Structures are given as C-alpha cells and as structure tokens.
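As a next step, we paired sequence with structure tokens, yielding the entry below.
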Amino acid sequence: LMLQEGHGGKEICVGYDRRFLSKESAHWAAEVLAGSGFRVLMVARSSPTPLIMYTVKRRNCPYGLAITASHNPAIYNGIKVFTEGGRDAEKSVTQKIEEQIAQITPADVKSMDYDRAVALGIVREKYPFNNYIDSILQVVDVEKIKNAGLRVAIDPMYGVSQSSLRTILLTCRCDVDVLHEQHDTLFGGRMPAPSADALKLLSNYVVDNRCDLGIATDGDADRLGIIDEYGRYLHANTLLVLMYYYFLKYRNWVGPCVRNNSTTHLLDRVALDFGQECHEVPVGFKYVSAKMAETDAIIGGESSGGMAVKGHIQGKDGIYAAALIVEML
C-alpha cells in the first residue's frame, strides 16, 4: 500500500509496548520495511502509543506502526497503523491493508537483517521522549498545577505510561506515588484496562494516603481511568463532560465535540448551552478522529476511556488527557 502510494524510500516510525514479543515484532516489521526500500525510525524503548503517534506527526512520516494490543488480554498482540499527521488509520486505509494481506504470499515478503539495517543507517534507533513530554508541558498550565501542591497516585497497570506521567507531574511539582510500574507481560494476571473493578487497589491507595487524584492508563497509555479524592471511580462519560465544560467555560475555547453512539448525550446538552454542536459517530476511535479533524472539534471521546483533545495529536492520548485533568483539578 505504501509503495503504491509513492512513499518508497520515506521514513516510517515504528514503536512498541511492553507486551510479550512486542519489541521483537517491531524489529521484524522494521526488517520487512527496510527490505522493501523504506527508512525506519525505531522508537528505541517501549513507549506509549501516543508518543509514537506524536513522532509520526512531528517527523512528517506518511505512516507509523505501534506493536500493541492496547487494553486487551495478555495473550493478544497486534499492530496499530497511523497515517500522516499521526492519526489513526481510517477504515478506507485498513480495508486496503486487509485486502492486500489476503493476497500476499511468503515469496512476496522481502526483508533485511535488523542489525545490518542499523549498521547501514536504514534503521535508526531514537527515543523521542523529550519532544513528546515538552509538547504536552507547552499546552498545560504548569504554574497553576505547581501552585496547587497536589499529591497524585498513578497506576500504569504494568504498561508504558510511568515515565511520561511521572516526568510531567514532577515537573509540575506534584507529589507522585506509583503502583504497578514494573515490567510484567501478564499485567498482574488481569486485563490492562482501567475499569472500576481493576482500579480498586488504586482507589484504596488514594484514600489511605490522602491523595488528591488517582490516574490509571491502559497497557499502551491511550486510555485513561480516574479516581477522585474520595476513592470514587469517575466514568469516562463523566470525565468527557467535565473536560468539555472546563474547556468551554474556563479555557474559553470555542468548538464542537465528538462522541460515539454509546457515549453520554450529556455532551450534547453542554454543547447546546454554549452554542456548539455535538457530533455522533459509530464505535471505533478512527471515526472520532476523522470527525474531529473534519469539524475542528475541541474534544472527542468514547465511553471506554479513550479521549482526544485539540492541540496535540489527532488521536487518543491518556497521558495528555491526564495532564489536562490535573490542570482542571
């Protein structure tokens, strides 16, 4: 598909999460890309999916890949595809990919040994962590958070958000405690999805240690779960409404919102009160991303915890959303 579109020789960003064989799979993907005539920017450490998306956007890559199965069980793995601008691949793109997968044979697959590709400079290993962190700190009110003196507990759910969240929060002078930060490909025997049931330990920790907030992210850090100071789980429907209201009333932003058809209609009522519109799309975040780009929406989200906010990447980012929630608090 990329060759057909005339992208031969261009740089493709590839990254991976902490799942079993994710790093190896990323290297295998790089070998095939290198063998097919592409240059590869390999994100050198396990990283949040939104960091990879941001790197695709920042480096003007036509495509990017993240090896991850997101919030799904530990036995799964997969590939997320991003298009120009760091966006989730739209249905038209994924359909073309599926059609070509159905036709491909082993003889069609060309590859180059990973170490040889690195030695030749075809694959370059970089860790664009600072660029990603700085892009978030530039759009969050750091001084307001500093002045609040917050204590925040974070639960990466054995995933990839701990470095990013900790760095952002410590830069904002928060007192930070971290649970479940070690590398465990089995995710502690549970799905790495920040649901109410999965965050009971975080909830207890917040209450017992008098934290102001608990933040959890899924396995690849694009989804978010929040615990308030009383240990209550705030559903994504609640978070989306609070954030949209905050942006409109306190940040004085102007613009519509986007939700899928299983997400709260209270967003429609908030939009109406501020003279804005709420757009409904089918389930699947690629539909949310596409509609946000089409309508220049402020925020888009789904009831399963994924949300995207204008001014960063055109896709969901649990770390950016968490930073904005800390600012809102």
Notes: The chain has twelve helices and 15 strands. The mean pLDDT is 95. The longest strand covers residues 11-16.
